[in-house]
Amino acid sequence: MTKGISLSLHKNAGDLKETGGESLTEEQKRDNVIRLAFGGRRERLQEFIRVIREEIPPHTGVILRGSAVTGTRWKDGAPFDADGPGTSDLDLTLVGDDVIGLFTVTGFFVPGVHSRPLSDDDPNIAPPLVTLRETLMAMTGRPVNIQASRDAVIHLRGDVLGQPYLTLIDKHDPSE
Core-most of 11, 74, 144, 152, by most CB within 10 Å? Predict the structure, then answer.
């Protein structure tokens, strides 16, 4: 029974291909991100990651979620940038203990565990990340939202609920 529930949630999250029902591989997710958000240029994604890496605390992971990864909007199934070039946002989540402290007390869905996104709707909830967000938006020509979560939230959303994400920076990689 649990497997059936997980598969259903997994499918709803958009991590399954439209044909065949198999999950997107990491390579397919990365290819989607490069094609959709970075104009097919791998070096633009690499530069994006380099800029993030320079601005985050050590031992922080970074994942990208949403339609840039899956190719479709979760809410209504519309394709990435359905409303015109540069209209779909990039949803970054910083993962780790130290990044939680970059958000104000009022910047959380679950205090100290899972933040709201630093975005146009909440532009002041993570002052140390505002410049990074502005830089990333200038680089990509689209909105970028930055959220922070602890590992348990990512495990729950990704592994248990099957919500797709692409790891950009692995917090456990010694080269990070």
Answer: 144
